[in-house]
From TrEMBL:
Top-rank taxon: Bacteria
Organism: Rhodococcoides kroppenstedtii
Pfam families: Glyoxalase (PF00903)
InterPro entries cross-referenced by the UniProt entry: Glyas_Bleomycin-R_OHBP_Dase, Glyas_Fos-R_dOase_dom, VOC_core
Domain VOC stretches: 3-127
The protein's name in its UniProt record: Glyoxalase
SUPFAM superfamilies named in the record: Glyoxalase/Bleomycin resistance protein/Dihydroxybiphenyl dioxygenase
Length: 140
């Protein structure tokens, strides 16, 4: 069985978030998008639902995390190369995102992170394909 993953999070401005993530190369499923929701396609089995705050509140029983003070989760997305990590992170920063941590370089794995327009943290990572496939221990 192939499992699908649907991440739901809130945004202040659905249209602005759609523009931001569109600039990063993500596409959207318009059948599940409207003025309160942007259904962002990560791949065939992963979708991130960007919901306006009032819409998101309908799905939860407690408070939304204040992303200026705390983290509920980190979202990590892969890239095909170290250069692709830099391109995606730099594009996010030039389109209104903000830096979060310093780049992490472990030789076999490289990553950078940024906050989106709503302060949610996204990590962009590349891992040596041989290490990712389990063909040997990481070169540390």
């Amino acid at each position: 069985m192939t499992r699908m993953l649907f991440v739901n999070t809130y945004v202040e401005d659905v249209a602005a978030s759609r523009t931001f993530f569109g600039a990063l190369g993500f596409e959207f499923n318009d059948a599940f998008s409207d003025e309160n929701t942007a259904s962002m396609i990560v791949n065939d089995t992963t979708t991130v639902m960007l919901l306006a705050r009032p819409k998101f509140q309908e799905f939860i029983l407690d408070e939304m995390t204040d992303t200026s003070r705390s983290r509920e989760m980190l979202l990590a997305v892969s890239a095909d190369s170290r250069e692709a990590v830099d391109t995606l992170a730099d594009t996010a920063l030039s389109n209104g995102g903000s830096a979060w941590t310093d780049p992490q370089d472990h030789g076999f794995m490289y990553g950078r992170s940024f906050r989106d327009l709503d302060g949610h943290v996204w990590e962009v990572i590349w891992m040596d394909p041989a290490v990712a496939a389990g063909d040997g221990p990481p070169d540390r």
